[in-house]
Amino acid sequence: MLITREMDYCVRIVRALKDGGQLSANEIAAAEHIQTAVTNKLLKKLSKGGILESRRGQMGGYRLLRSCGTLTLYDLFSAMESVPRLTECIAGGYDCPNNAAGGCGVHGEFCRIQRALNAELRRYSLAQLFGQPQEPCAAADADAPAAPPAPQ
Fold first, then answer.
1. Does the pTM of the predicted model rise above 0.70?
2. I need a surface site. Which of 18, 49, 60, 92 has the fewest CB within 10 A?
3. Residue 14 and residue 20 in contact, taking contact as beta carbons nearer than 8 Å
4. What is the pLDDT along the chain (152 residues), one digit of tens a residue?
5. Cα-flanking dihedrals φ and ψ of residue 125, to 5°?
6. How far is CA 48 from the centre of its chain?
7. How far is it, in rounded angstroms, from Cα 31 to Cα 9?
8. Is the Cβ–Cβ distance between 67 and 37 less than 8 Å?
9. Are 32 and 90 in contact (CB under 8 A)?
10. What are the beta bridge partners of residue 55?
11. How close are the terminal C-alpha atoms of the chain, in Å?
12. Residue 129: alpha-carbon gap to chain centroid
């Protein structure tokens, strides 16, 4: 699965902070209907990844380090150290025994698809995504093959 539940929660955490304010972990969890323990775990990862800043103390909380106008889904994947890869053979430093002489045609196609995926993840800012009207999920499946007819 490309967008894990954890990544979905990260997008929602950023959405809670999109207006530039500072919120506590409890406020973010309540606003986005995420368990507080999960929210805390992801806030730490997003802070470590350079997406959020954390402030301690009574006036503490979390805020975005960059505006949603400059952040993309790719940035969130990178911050979470989980940039999606189609296959391990396209990762830098992977020594594929099937592509040792550069003769694997599948490798080249996987690389092309990976570049297209990365481009799509960078295509829109999070501000653009948050501002788009909601599209019914059925439309997202329009390209999927039709289900076989039910047996009679």
1. yes
2. 92
3. no
4. 477 899 999 999 999 999 988 999 999 999 999 999 999 999 999 999 999 999 988 888 999 999 999 999 999 998 987 777 777 777 777 777 776 666 677 877 888 888 998 999 999 999 998 986 655 655 445 555 554 555 55
5. -75, 160
6. 16
7. 12
8. no
9. no
10. 61
11. 33
12. 12
Give the pLDDT of residue 135.
Answer: 58
The residue type of 113 is I
Quote the strand ranges of the chain, DSSP E.
Answer: 52-55, 61-64
Torsion, CA 110, CA 115, CA 82, CA 94, rounded to 10: 50
Segments in the chain forming alpha helices (H): 5-16, 25-32, 36-48, 73-79, 105-123, 126-131, 137-140
Q: How far apart are CA 7 and CA 96, in angstroms?
A: 29
Residue 137: the pLDDT is 52
Q: Give the amino acid at 148.
A: P
Q: Which residues contact 26 (CB under 8 A, 6 or more apart)?
A: 36
